[in-house]
Amino acid sequence: MNQSIENEEPSLVPAYMIVNLIVTDADRYRTYEKGFFPLLKKYGGEFITYDDSPLTLEGNSSREGRMIIFKFPTEQLAKDWYADADYQALSEHRRAGTRMEFLTLVRGLPPRK
Prior knowledge:
Layout: E1 15-23, H1 26-42, E2 46-51, E3 66-72, H2 75-83, H3 85-97, E4 98-107
Antiparallel strand pairs: 1-3, 1-4, 2-3
Helix pairs in contact: 1-3
């Protein structure tokens, strides 16, 4: 039985967070980083990578600053992480210490059958 992505149960696919930010205050951002990983793990998140010198191969909008990729087992866990009161309090350090270009949730593909 073939199902399209639209018909897949959203809870069965991972959610990837793609971030682009420019650090403007390293001390404030470091405070954010120290608290980030325990909250990521609380929601089953997995840090994948970051890059301070991403290479744009095509397109009109090359990225400046840091690119970050991490994931959660489900979209709901990603949304719960973002809405977490402790995360929102911690993110004030990120907001004060960076210029956020984007924080985007990208839905993963369901497992192939």
